[in-house]
TrEMBL record:
<dbReference type="InterPro" id="IPR002042">
    <property type="entry name" value="Uricase"/>
</dbReference>
<feature type="active site" description="Charge relay system">
    <location>
        <position position="57"/>
    </location>
</feature>
<feature type="binding site">
    <location>
        <position position="240"/>
    </location>
    <ligand>
        <name>urate</name>
    </ligand>
</feature>
<feature type="binding site">
    <location>
        <position position="240"/>
    </location>
    <ligand>
        <name>5-hydroxyisourate</name>
    </ligand>
</feature>
<keyword id="KW-0560">Oxidoreductase</keyword>
<comment type="function">
    <text>Catalyzes the oxidation of uric acid to 5-hydroxyisourate, which is further processed to form (S)-allantoin.</text>
</comment>
<dbReference type="InterPro" id="IPR019842">
    <property type="entry name" value="Uricase_CS"/>
</dbReference>
<feature type="binding site">
    <location>
        <position position="171"/>
    </location>
    <ligand>
        <name>urate</name>
    </ligand>
</feature>
<dbReference type="GO" id="GO:0006144">
    <property type="term" value="P:purine nucleobase metabolic process"/>
</dbReference>
<feature type="binding site">
    <location>
        <position position="57"/>
    </location>
    <ligand>
        <name>urate</name>
    </ligand>
</feature>
<feature type="binding site">
    <location>
        <position position="58"/>
    </location>
    <ligand>
        <name>urate</name>
    </ligand>
</feature>
<keyword id="KW-0659">Purine metabolism</keyword>
<feature type="binding site">
    <location>
        <position position="240"/>
    </location>
    <ligand>
        <name>O2</name>
    </ligand>
</feature>
<protein>
    <recommendedName>
        <fullName>Uricase</fullName>
        <ecNumber>1.7.3.3</ecNumber>
    </recommendedName>
</protein>
<feature type="binding site">
    <location>
        <position position="214"/>
    </location>
    <ligand>
        <name>urate</name>
    </ligand>
</feature>
<feature type="binding site">
    <location>
        <position position="57"/>
    </location>
    <ligand>
        <name>5-hydroxyisourate</name>
    </ligand>
</feature>
<feature type="binding site">
    <location>
        <position position="154"/>
    </location>
    <ligand>
        <name>urate</name>
    </ligand>
</feature>
């Protein structure tokens, strides 16, 4: 029996980076979490402990900080591409780099040049792979919490001896959107594209009369692809943040869809992919989100 080394990578995870760019009294804030991973011919360090080809994870961390100083971070997709290409181009034995970045939002406090409030749990994300002279970009967002208090139904599902859920033609629909979209090419106005995809997701969630969260998921992905030609496919994960009607009858009160109990778990988890049938080959795009 032969034992061999399988796919492997290594890097520095969750480098916290905050930059302040000053334009006179007006300051611009960037708050990022950056993770780097490198791949290549790294058998020697695993098999013999020979570290001659190992770019230390501390070096990777320092590179993130140095790049943030040498030129403005800009859009996270561009920053990730610069980092990935640097590692691949600078070290002959490194054949691939994966860069993951989360951007934590801050809003300027009205009337103040250098004071900010945190924008909540929502994060802008990107995952970039650079390998074999190519680059793949998958961007997205996490924890975009949305709710509509009507315009949602759920009925017509099969019933058996374990079914207790009542059918409804009027319910609260709420979720925390996790979205990833794969770009075609990399010469893209990242900021505009992200803002527009986010807008489309929000507007479709609000406008679509929903018979199921699955139907809403498809409508959201479809709307993005129809309006944004630079996007090849959209992947959505939508936890159903259940709101159950409270039984007020013991108190002699009628509850006409006005008082709800918000349950945090367990929850339904609706996930799916919406894609163009003529999209270019994804290559290593989604590889960026997996371990290897």
């Amino acid at each position: 029996m032969a034992i061999t080394l399988g796919p492997n990578q290594y890097g520095k995870a969750e480098v916290r980076l905050v930059t302040v760019r000053r334009e006179g009294s007006v300051h611009h804030l960037k708050d990022l979490t950056v993770s780097t991973s490198l791949r290549g011919d790294l058998a020697a360090t695993h098999l013999t402990g020979d570290n001659a080809d190992v770019v230390a994870t501390d070096t990777q961390k320092n590179t993130v900080y140095a790049f943030a100083k040498e030129s403005p971070v800009g859009e996270i997709e561009d920053f990730a591409l610069r980092l990935g290409r640097h590692f691949v181009d600078s070290f002959e034995h490194i054949s691939g780099a994966r860069i993951l970045i989360d951007e934590h939002g801050w809003n300027r406090i009205s009337g103040h040049d250098h004071a900010f409030s945190q924008a909540g749990s929502e994060k802008r994300t990107t995952a970039v792979t650079v390998q074999d002279g190519q680059a793949w970009v998958v961007s997205g967002l996490d924890d975009l919490v949305v709710l509509k208090s009507t315009g949602s139904e759920f009925h017509g599902f099969p019933r058996d001896e374990y079914t207790t859920l009542a059918e409804t033609n009027d319910r609260i629909l709420a979720t925390a959107v996790t979205a990833r979209w794969r770009y075609q090419g990399d010469g893209i106005d990242w900021a505009t594209s992200h803002a527009e995809v986010r807008r489309i997701l929000l507007e479709t969630f609000a406008d679509k009369h929903s018979l199921s969260l699955q139907q809403t998921l498809y409508a959201m992905g479809e709307a993005v692809l129809k309006e944004r030609e630079e996007v090849a496919e959209v992947r959505l994960s939508l936890p159903n943040k259940h709101h159950f009607l409270v039984d007020l009858s013991p108190f002699g009160l009628k509850n006409d869809n006005e008082v709800f109990f918000a349950a945090d778990r367990p929850y339904g988890l609706i996930e799916g992919v919406v894609l163009r049938d003529d999209a270019e080959d994804p290559g290593l795009a989604w590889h960026t989100l997996a371990a290897f």
